Amino acid sequence: MNASAWLQSKMLVKIEDHINIVYSLGKEGIQFLEKGLPEKIALKLISDKGGQATLKDLSKILDTQNISVAVGWLRKKDWATIIKEKDTIFQITENGKEALKVDSDEERILYQLNTTPNIELDKNKIKSLLSRKNVIKEKEVITSSIILTENGKEVLRRSIEVNHPLHHSSPFPWKWLRNRTKEPRFLYQKSIIITRY
């Protein structure tokens, strides 16, 4: 039994666990960060070709899988209209022209996760990236708060040494608790935070 569990069994502290979801870049996310999102690569090509490009043109710069991704998002974001004749033709829209001038929401999130990984984000804002395989990794983080009870505070006030069952005549649990802060009185108002992934 560790010190915190022993203290809890004596009703000297209470332990509260909180589960948070944090996000970081996945393998595809790192590649998108380095090379660009498929739809943004395709959009730039269409623009560079005077606002119109064919499916064959896209196949020269994107592999088959990323062409499908790019076409889907070009349509969904209204960045290009698709005309099917002898060949599939993509024509840039006004929204597409504007999109070339700024970073998309997805790009900004990739930059953010690259700079500060393992952070909490609004799931609604990253829904489009979560829908793509291996772009963002999701992880649960358990944060334990160890909080003094009124009994625990009273023991500290009286400076009573509490014997650990495994170490007779040892104030070990309180040393363990006190060592989390330079000022023991801090524990009267605050809790100790222990985070584990």
Which features characterize this protein?
three-stranded antiparallel sheet, 11 helices, single chain, rod-shaped, alpha+beta, 2 domains
Summarize the structure.
Helices cover 44% and strands 22% of the residues. By secondary structure, the chain is of the alpha+beta class.
Which helices and strands occur, and which strands form pairs?
Blueprint (H helix, E strand, L loop, with lengths): L2 H7 L3 E13 L1 H9 L2 H11 L3 E3 H5 L4 H13 L3 E5 L3 E5 L1 H6 L5 H11 L11 H4 L5 E13 L1 H9 L13 H7 L7 H4 L2 E5 L1
Antiparallel strand pairs: 1-5, 2-4, 3-4, 5-6
Give the SSE order as H and E letters: HEHHEHHEEHHHEHHHE
The count of helical stretches stands at 11
Strand content: 15-25%
Decide which structural class fits the backbone.
alpha+beta
The structural domain count equals: 2
- Mean pLDDT figure: 82
Walkthrough of the structure:
The chain has 197 residues and is α+β, with helices and mostly antiparallel strands. It has 2 domains: 1-36 and 104-197, no CATH class; 38-102, Winged helix-like DNA-binding domain superfamily/Winged helix DNA-binding domain (Arc Repressor Mutant, subunit A, Orthogonal Bundle), CATH 1.10.10.10. It is built from 11 helices and 6 strands. It has helices at 3-9, 27-35, 38-48, 55-59, 64-76, 94-99, 105-115, 127-130, 150-158, 172-178, 186-189, and strands spanning 13-25, 52-54, 80-84, 88-92, 136-148, 192-196. Strands 1-5-6 form a 3-stranded antiparallel sheet. Strands 2-4-3 form a 3-stranded antiparallel sheet. A hairpin with a 3-residue loop joins strand 3 and strand 4 (88-92). Helix 1 (3-9) packs across helix 10 (172-178) and helix 3 (38-48) crosses helix 5 (64-76). It starts with a helix and ends with a strand.
